[in-house]
Design brief:
Blueprint (H helix, E strand, L loop, with lengths): L2 E5 L6 H12 L4 E5 L17 E4 L5 H11 L1 E6 L5 H6 L1 H22 L2 E7 L23 H20 L2 E7 L1 E3 L12 H12 L1 E3 L8 E5 H13 L11 E2 L3 E3 L1 H9 L6 E3 L5 H8 L8 H7 L7 H19 L1
Parallel strand pairs: 1-2, 1-4, 2-3, 4-5, 5-6, 6-10, 7-9, 8-12
Antiparallel strand pairs: 9-11
Helix pairs in contact: 1-7, 2-4, 4-5, 6-8, 6-11
Amino acid sequence: MRKILITGALGQIGSELVPALIARYGAENVVASDLRMRRMEPAAEAWPDTEMFEHLDCTDAVAIHNLVQRYDIGAIYHMAALLSAIAEEKPQAAWNLNMGGLYGVLEAARQHRCQVFMPSSIGAFGPATPMVDTPQVTIQRPTTIYGVTKVAGELLCDYYHSRFGVDTRGLRLPGLVSHKAPPGGGTTDYAVDMFHQAIRYQHFSCFLEADTRLDMMYMPDAIKAMIGLMEADPKRLLHRNAFNVTAMNFTPDELAAEIRTHIPDFVIEYDNVDPVCQAIADSWPRSIDDSAARGEWDWSPDYGIKDMTADMLDKVGAKLHQTG
């Protein structure tokens, strides 16, 4: 088979996607890449020693092209991007990476006939979007640079598919919770940090308000969704590049209550709400409708809030115990 390339492989998603792809397709068929160096990143410690790693700046279209050609890449999981909160601090850098990187990937895919996966986000929606059970096709109009790049990315992927026949696919991911990667600058990363602080200190100061309701997903389900979509029969795919997907829905207070079923003394406070992050979260849907994904490629999550919380506390607790 032709090889699989992952960009942004040391990020929150990539660090778990790489070993999942290796387990499924073999280490000899997976090439990981990132701007950062693998030896400096604890997220890559558990990767197989035989895995191939390349230093790659995704704003360099020539470097992307050369890497795809050298390894005979047949599929690209394009994970390199600046997330919502960091992107608001660095909008020019966010545009250069999120859009320039995607353009370079799509051009390489066009020339070498690669399949491309691009993760979109609930951040692609905005205040004018229906907030409850957000439809698959609806008004978007985001108010953040992150959201703007995601909408533009969805449209660019659609264009490369319709104009050049590139097999582009993508998901609008909700907030992701991972036990492997630390918080990476996303608005929903409060949930990841809450688990770490609950185990360490039984206390957490949340940067979102108590009743901020958002759709969320545990990382194993996100990885399952990505691989499932990439393996899906293209004849069934009507929407292709921006499938709504979700797994669970909760507020910070509801997650804290679930954590207290395991750590009764855990306390959450809301004395340090970040107005930028809160404004971003308030512009996103309260819940989304993922019936298109369920119907077109049989999407179904494995984890709800109870199973995720139990697994997160177990895995994060074991990691913190090892590191002292």
